[in-house]
Specification:
Length: about 280
């Protein structure tokens, strides 16, 4: 599958979320069976997904880690069934090098690491060796403890600086600069106010020059702003964040509601491109 040129995209790309987990916060259990996941993957491509992000471990706040063995058992059958056959590249959402290596061998073409290459010391070397792009996410702590008490002096500057440090480590490990994307990690060790500041100032992160990925889809802060709406009722809130991300020049939005967000992106991108 030809991969996008991240720094020369015609518009923001839509990455569809495919979680094969029993416990993801919004779609846990729904696509746990490989056959259901494969059908969901095809549906998301038909609805306008430019990429798919396949994950076998929930990283919601408080989630317990699973073994690489279990993560591979969940993701590899789906990957083997769809990689190279659905018309879009697939990223593997993992912070474990062992899972990433197996997924790349099974046809994944991008690594999406919410820990920015920090949770597994082998990850950056693996990605360098395979020559694939990597999304470096920002997190404070681990999914289990990240929401305990996140503190920042200036969240926008600190997240930007820490992502740049992660990108520098990736380059030192041998990853090509053009293959590095960064993600502020909305909800990963951040309060509501931190998430809102990061989203308000996405253009600052974009201006640092690396392609930016953003994942706000159905997240808790959206529910908080909408009087406690449950995950499946956060689509309009997600749409607000998607439109603003497009306006800020974000390269990729990671979303569950592909049909709705692909439409939001098309309209917001047309406005962003106007004179
Ligand atoms: N968020 C989640 C998982 N992976 N990857 C990137 N790059 N950015 C994100 O914001 C991001 C991510 C969490 O969302 P989800 O996959 O829907 O839930 P869970 O972790 O419970 O499976």
């Amino acid at each position: 599958m030809p991969l996008p040129r991240w720094n020369a995209l015609p518009r923001t790309l839509v990455m569809g979320v495919l979680n094969v987990t029993p416990d993801s916060f919004s779609d846990g259990g729904k696509f746990f069976k490989a056959a259901d996941a494969i059908e969901k993957a095809r549906a998301m491509v038909a609805e306008g997904a430019d990429l798919l992000d396949l994950g076998g471990e929930s990283t919601r706040p408080g989630a317990e880690a699973v073994t690489a063995e279990e993560e591979k058992r969940r993701t590899l059958p789906v990957l083997e069934a769809i990689a190279g056959k659905i018309g879009v590249p697939i990223s593997i959402d993992t912070y474990k090098a062992e899972t990433a290596a197996a997924a790349l061998a099974a046809g994944a073409e991008i690594v999406n690491d919410i820990s920015g290459g920090r949770m597994d010391p082998e990850m950056l070397a693996l990605v360098a060796e395979r020559g694939v792009p990597i999304v470096l996410g920002h997190i404070r702590g681990t999914p289990k403890d990240m929401q305990d008490r996140p503190v920042y002096r200036d969240v926008v500057a600190e997240v930007g600086d820490e992502l740049e440090a992660a990108a520098a480590r990736a380059e030192e490990a041998g990853i090509a600069p053009a293959s590095i994307l960064v993600d502020p990690g909305i909800g990963f060790g951040k309060t509501l106010e931190h998430n809102l500041s990061l989203l308000k100032h996405l253009d600052d992160l974009v201006a640092r020059g690396r392609p930016v990925v953003v994942g706000t889809s159905r997240k808790k802060f959206v529910g908080t702003l909408l009087d406690g709406a449950p995950p499946e009722d956060r689509v309009e809130g997600t749409a607000a964040t998607t439109a603003l991300a497009v306006a800020a020049g974000v390269a990729v939005v990671r979303v569950h509601d592909v049909k709705a967000m692909a439409r939001v992106v098309r309209v917001a991108a047309a406005i962003a491109a106007a004179k």
